[in-house]
Specification:
two-stranded antiparallel sheet, 6-stranded mixed beta sheet
């Protein structure tokens, strides 16, 4: 599998140290760009944030762990607002965005949030388990996946993100090793798919 190959490659030591300590499961496939409306109304794309490390967070207002995690991601957004780290949310709430907009205002969330009201992007990224955070590299690769809620506002996390911000590409993080990613087909590694609940009759 892809992950097994990572574990034994010496140049990936930096990536192992930083992303693994942050709790991410590693991958290095080309990310899939998308265009979605923001909660505020205008449209934008993932590629608008090219040049930064993007913590792409899939969440919903009805998800308890998401509601606990969002303020900690806001802390990251505030701490790194003038750096190469960018927090971006993707709300999977169905229907009109008024409820989401109200929640963001009431909780003081200021980082940009897309509205994936038809679950188009969450299906592509296999984000059926929320919250899920995807680390996108400045050169557009999906570098890691984190499933489940987490407090991102600890000093340990901030220290690792400060180190990560110094790397401009995933290849740099990999010790100069070029990243082999398929630019045409976005194929999610099977061992990184979210768990599926099976119900017996």
């Amino acid at each position: 599998s892809i992950l097994l190959s990572f574990a034994f490659v010496e140049p990936l030591k930096a990536q192992d140290n930083i992303l693994k300590r942050l709790g991410f499961r590693l991958t290095q496939i080309k990310s899939k760009d998308f265009i979605l409306p923001y909660i505020e109304g205008s449209k934008g794309s993932l590629s608008d944030y090219r040049g930064k490390w993007v913590l792409l967070n899939f969440w919903a207002t009805w998800c308890g762990p998401c509601r606990q995690e969002m303020p900690t991601l806001e802390s990251v957004a505030q701490e790194f607002q003038n750096s190469h780290i960018q927090v971006v949310g993707v709300s999977v709430d169905q229907g009109k965005r008024g409820l989401v907009k109200k929640y963001l205002k009431e909780t003081g969330i200021t980082f940009p949030n897309f509205h994936d009201y038809q679950s188009e992007v969450s299906r592509i990224y296999q984000a059926t388990a929320i919250p899920s955070v995807y680390m996108i590299s400045p050169d557009g690769f999906l570098a890691g996946v984190f499933r489940g809620g987490k407090s991102w506002e600890t000093q340990e996390v901030f220290n690792e993100l400060k180190k990560l911000a110094q790397y401009k590409t995933l290849a740099d993080l990999n010790g100069g090793k070029n990243v082999e990613g398929n630019k045409e087909n976005f194929s999610f590694p099977k061992d990184l798919l979210p768990p599926v609940m099976k119900v017996s009759p």
